[in-house]
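Q: Predict the assembly, please.
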Amino acid sequence: SQQGEEDPQALSIQEGENATMNCSYKTSINNLQWYRQNSGRGLVHLILIRSNEREKHSGRLRVTLDTSKKSSSLLITASRAADTASYFCATAILTQGGSEKLVFGKGTKLTVNP
Amino acid sequence: SQTIHQWPATLVQPVGSPLSLECTVEGTSNPNLYWYRQAAGRGLQLLFYSVGIGQISSEVPQNLSASRPQDRQFILSSKKLLLSDSGFYLCAWSVQNSYEQYFGPGTRLTVT
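A: Predicted assembly structure:
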């Protein structure tokens, strides 16, 4: 099963509203990342939050991390039509070879209506 | 600045035909390189990753293979494509010992 699971799977809001997406994971982590993917394009790194951080801001983005609940949330404030995209959380897990790899959730598809 | 290229952007191939997708990174040295596949409406599945020339780790057994002939070149191959190989293939790179990954534009593969 997926290490990270986003919720909801799809979200539709009006421009100007806030959008909140959640991510739950199963194992202990060093950090958690959020990525954005426009339709048919590659992923773009948005923000990384470390396990010893509870909240982090970047522009209109606010990420929280609750390691006791193994969950994170991504809040986009004052949404714009250009924010329409899929958003993925990713956590790093150890491979058998001892290096780390990212495991992505299935994503939340956000639609911001003008 | 660093850039990552993938080609081709789209590809339609018949079942049983070979495959070669190429990914190159510019502006950095000794990156970690990754191949992912994304099925329609799904998350990313890690296929291969490489920490150096000639070093390939496979995550999912299948009829695909990867090679890293040069420091900043990563190739995904198949000898005989299956219908189930259709999908969106993404290459990514990261700095050694860094968690952030940077993705290429992707290749849309349709096997008919």
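The mean pLDDT of chain A is 91. Chain A touches chain B through 24 residues (CB under 8 Å).
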